[in-house]
Amino acid sequence: MCQSKADGGRRCAGTPTGRALSGLYLQRAAAVTPSEAEGFTKSIERLKAAEKFYGGRFVSPYTIPVPDGVSAALDTLESVGTPLIVGGAVRDSMSGSENKDIDIEVYGADVDTIVAALRGGGFKVDEVGRAFGVLKVSKKGVVSDLDVSVPRRENTTGAGHRDFTVEPDSTMSVVDAAQRRDFTVNAVSYDPSREVLVDPFNGRKDFDDKVLRHVGDQFGEDPLRVLRGFQFAGRFGMSLDPSTAKLCRNLREHYRELPVERVREEWGKFFTKSTSPATGVRALQEAGWDDTIHGLREALKDVNTVDALDRLVKVPQGDRTVMGAAIIAAGMPSELRREFLSTVLIGKDDEKVAHDLASLNAADVDTSYARRVLARKYASRGFTFQRLATFARDVTCDGVMGELADRAVEEGLGSGPEPDWIQGRDIIKTVSRKPGPWLGNLLDDVRDRQYRREFANADEALSWVIERAESP
Fold it and tell me: Are residues 44 and 73 in the same domain?
């Protein structure tokens, strides 16, 4: 639908501005009172002014609530340039999520000018990221660790993920700056003073349509963007545009160039933030990156694996990474599990817990003795039977394992191991021997016998220990 020239020129609804103006014209035409019509007229005029300011038909009315502290920084920045809210805060707002982290990008002002204005307004400015055009801004009692940046150019110097140079450029236009973004949904910014979304690549429509589309050919300069797309797809229930999927497949050979730390980071976001893990899995498969780790492709073909991943949303966020990794590892041959877990998890303890969960079967916990031993092993790695019960009931839907885990909880093992009946100090104060390796071995032995219930109580256990300690 296009508006006539009498209404301000040909305005096609295929652009963000066109769609917004079409709606406003219709609302004005349907207004019941003159004051309502006047309100829509003012909205139309404001939108046209924003369109003129940005020189393009890619703005639309929008409001993102901004904390008072951030507003104070924005007021200061508006005195020297045009500050826009960029990144995750805009995307989260479009999804209806809370804006936890707000990043600001300032157009029309260089770093020196921005620093001077902020300090003149009483803000503390940390310039540690100055070489990249990024500042950390704080003001006691007002705002802390606010990221403020200027647009920057990223110039490729090689084929690798890290092979590029960064050049801050305060003269860049909003469109030029948006072109360096990975996906159209991440190329949307928000102008708080004009209350409009600045959307040169139709990212909001793609977000509403749940389409993950690359901005341009620069996408291919960084293979990490494929894994970012994988976790975005899971988080927001989005599907890869066919042209984007094809570009991702062409980047498959560059996977080995990625630092394992960055790979873990993207997998971690997939596990902890996904609302539809199955959609993320499908995106990884369409991108041709489901074979980047040995055994992964076959594991993700199993519908039971994908269904279990979708149930991760039922468990606390802090458990999702270990449990999600365990779900996938369980679908792999045992000899491939450790490679996968060491790739996607941070920390040996998490790897061990995930490996235990992937390998565990009912026979491993079908006696009280076995459950006592496992509770101690879990405790050394920061895991509990209570969490295992949640994993079995809510994620893998393993009724037998869930029942056995519940039994462990009933036995007092839900939050940790059974307390040792005998401590080292109990032995030392009753025998004349000096501490040594013998003491640890003896404690291990008496604990094992305690778990087997070879003693009726702690007194019996102590008598047995003293007898063994006095006759080495």
Answer: no
Are 271 and 323 within one domain? yes
Q: What are phi and psi of 285, to 5 degrees?
A: -70, -45
pLDDT in tens, 424-463: 988 888 887 888 898 999 999 999 999 999 999 999 999 9
Q: What is the mean pLDDT of residues 331-360?
A: 94
> Are 194 and 242 part of one and the same domain?
no
Dihedral angle of Cα 450, 455, 456, 460, to the nearest 10 degrees:
-110
- pLDDT of res. 431: 81
Provide the domain limits for residue 192. Answer: 68-210
- Torsion, Cα 62 218 15 93, to 10 degrees, reads -20
Nearest C-alpha neighbor of 357 from the set 378, 387, 326, 403: 326
On whether both 354 and 389 belong to a single domain, the answer is: yes
Q: Please give the Cα distance from 37 to 322 (Å, whole number).
A: 56
First to last CA, the chain: 94
Kindly report, residue by residue over 241-259, the tens digit of the pLDDT. Answer: 999 999 999 999 999 999 9
13 has a pLDDT exceeding 60? no
Q: How many domains does the chain have?
A: 4
Does residue 63 sit within a domain?
no
Q: pTM of this prediction?
A: 0.86
Average pLDDT, the chain: 92
Asked whether residue 226 falls in the same domain as residue 371, the answer is yes
Between 87 and 2, the more confident residue is 87
Instruction: Tell me: do 77 and 148 sit in the same domain.
Output: yes
Using CA atoms, how far apart are residues 312 and 267, in angstroms rounded to an integer?
14
In 20-151, the DSSP E strands lie at 59-61, 82-86, 103-107, 124-126, 134-139, 143-149
Length of the chain: 472
